[in-house]
Amino acid sequence: MDQVVQVISAKYPCRKALIQKLYQLFGDGDPFPPAVYLYGHTSTGKSSILQAFLPLLDSSTSWAILSAIECYTNKILFETILNRLTGHVPCAANGYASLSSVDSMKDVVAQL
Questions:
Q1: SUPFAM superfamilies from the entry (predicted)?
Q2: Is 32 within 8 Å of 26 (Cβ atoms)?
């Protein structure tokens, strides 16, 4: 078991099975899966554990966490991905605008 699993398990008791599964997906040097969907009852720590886990990975890894429910159109999905990967935060100073208007994954890749 890796130190990452031990650190996160100490912070989130009784969630070791989920943490070990995440480590199997992300932590053993194999290629990452294209997407991971966490589901389950509300307020059980799914998002918190993932947000604690991902920063402990290799620093060259880019990732974005988003809610599939909030991204109800492709445009919102692609703009959210682009904003998260680039660190852009829509706020009052930028008129709550996305970094760029993107309509497809091709546009996202071109912006990156």
A1: P-loop containing nucleoside triphosphate hydrolases
A2: yes
| % of the chain at pLDDT higher than 90 | 11
- Whether the per-residue pLDDT at 88 is higher than 70: the answer is yes
Helices (H), 12-45: 16-26
Question: Is the pLDDT assigned to residue 1 strictly greater than 80?
Answer: no
**Res. 46: pLDDT tops 70:** yes
Owning domain of residue 99: 74-111
Looking up tokens 């008791």, which residue turns up?
A: 13
Tell me, yes or no, whether 27 lies in a domain: yes
Separation CA 2–CA 72 (nearest Å): 37
Count: domains in the chain: 2
